[in-house]
Amino acid sequence: MGGRVEEIFVTGEGSAAMESVEEIETIEGCGIKGDRYCEGTGFWVRYGDVCQVTLIEGEHLDEIEAQGLDIRSGQHRRNIVTRGVDLLGLRGKQFKVGGVVLEYDRSRPPCKHVQDLSERGMTRALRNRGGICATVVRAGPIRPGDTIEEA
Prior knowledge:
CATH class: Mainly Beta
Distance between the termini: 11 Å
Order of helices and strands: EEEEHEHEEEHHEEE
Largest sheet: 7 strands, mixed, barrel
Shape: globular
Oligomer: single chain
Radius of gyration: 14 Å
CATH architecture: Beta Barrel
Helix content: 10-25%
Number of helices: 4
CATH superfamily: PK beta-barrel domain-like
């Protein structure tokens, strides 16, 4: 697989700006300590749509950025930006991110809410490249530069 973590983003409240961080702590059965969905404050919590950890491919962000959209500052609303890994290829698998074990949950298509918080055209730009949701199987820290491999 040979992928790695490129960037990490979190926010403590739904609809608040995503912040770039140098480390996150994951919690089994919850997600990312301090992040909106682990804290129960995410926009989609009221609809029962919770992702413990979201990941998106940096290569897809490169393509979107080339279209002139500001996607690099967390506008994608995903927690972990990866490089060198086909996230959809992880379907049905557990995978390691550093020492943390995650399990593919489902793809994460973009929603209008992402566009409402960013700019016109964002939902369309993220179509078929909105990343995935994963659950935490074995907790621990994740940092930029950590490797991503099958568990």
